[in-house]
Amino acid sequence: QVQVVESGGGLVQAGESLRLSCTASETGSEIGAMAWFRQGPGKEREFVAGTTRSGNNTRYSGFLRDRVTISIDGAKNTVYLQMNNLKPEDTAVYYCAAGPRIITMNGQYSGGMEFWGKGTLVIVSS
Predict the structure, then answer these.
(1) Cα–Cα distances in Å, from 3 out to 16, 63, 109, 118?
(2) Are 65 and 79 a contacting pair, CB within 8 Å?
(3) Digit-coded pLDDT (tens) for 97-121
(4) Phi-psi region of 64 (alpha: psi -120 to 50; beta: other; left: phi over 0)
């Protein structure tokens, strides 16, 4: 069973930056892509960004594309999410996921993730 562990969350002020990290243990060839999602208070979970293991194919949700960057160290199965100019509405639990592929359509997640972390909390104060 692949385990996914996020880190890097915390309390920041609006306008600051934060980088989240996520590492997936791997027992075989289960991981071809990794992605970030988030779930704000009272909201449904939403897709933030995803990448193939090679890092050659990245996907972003339309509403965050200008403020986040996803990157990956494929050899370490570690994916990063750099978030800039954070806003209070970015407050959420950020989840990392891994799977054989990432499927998106028009910036919306469609499938591919099979292993999920427990999340890391990001709080942005105004």
Answers:
(1) 30, 29, 21, 10
(2) no
(3) 999 999 999 889 999 999 999 999 9
(4) alpha
